[in-house]
Amino acid sequence: MINEIIFMEIRLLGEFCRKYKMNRATANDIFSKYEIWQYIEECYDMFHINGDEYNLNDISRILKRKGAI
């Protein structure tokens, strides 16, 4: 299952970078600082039944609420 989680994290990071026009290093720093990597892992059971767009919107909502983006 770890491979599926990593694959999802990579996809969501890429989509996040495209949406917010930032490089992967900057996005990774944000994901690390605001514990988005852990969030994806903890919510994987829910995330894997939703589409990437829904999941990205959820992540964006969290980061906006925290003032990260």
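That was protein one. Protein two is written in the same sequence-then-structure order:
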Amino acid sequence: MDINTLIQQTNRLTCSSEPIELETDRTLPDILTPLTIVGKIICDIPFNKSTVRKILFKAWSSPSGLKIKEQDNHLLFIFQNEADYHKVLNNRPWTVMGSHLAIREWLPDVALQEVNLSTSPFWVRVYGLPPNRMTSNNAITIEKIIGVLLQVEHSRNCRIGEAAFMRLRVEIALEQPVPKGFALKR
């Protein structure tokens, strides 16, 4: 089948009915509490759940009452403590056995298959900029070649001989290579 035939067939697909409204279950099941995080380890080999659990418990400082479940090729992290939940989300990215753990909060109005794990926040250091170019506006310009800017930190108060840098927290697409640098127009 050639691509034009496939496009024509796709264009003929329609939804035959109007959207329907479904009631909301006010008593969420145990699988989805307000403190649930969906995750996926980005790797080509299968992982051992008990090993992952040990690694994350240690990395996350043994959060009390944490339950880890598997569902539809995803990991569900169900927290009992709001402080632990926010600590894990705010301190991303996480690595497990040399592989990236993409995580995202799971909101009650979103189906598990709709949780977007194709991006993840990373801290990126930008070195070699002249001090007068380390501005928030320039961080926004740099962000356009890397991902979506979440936060900016500057290290302007350096001693002579130390490299000044700008630290950006950027939401990066996991399927795309991260650029190693850029040319600065002078």
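The first helix runs from residue 3 to 11. Keep this in mind for the problem set.
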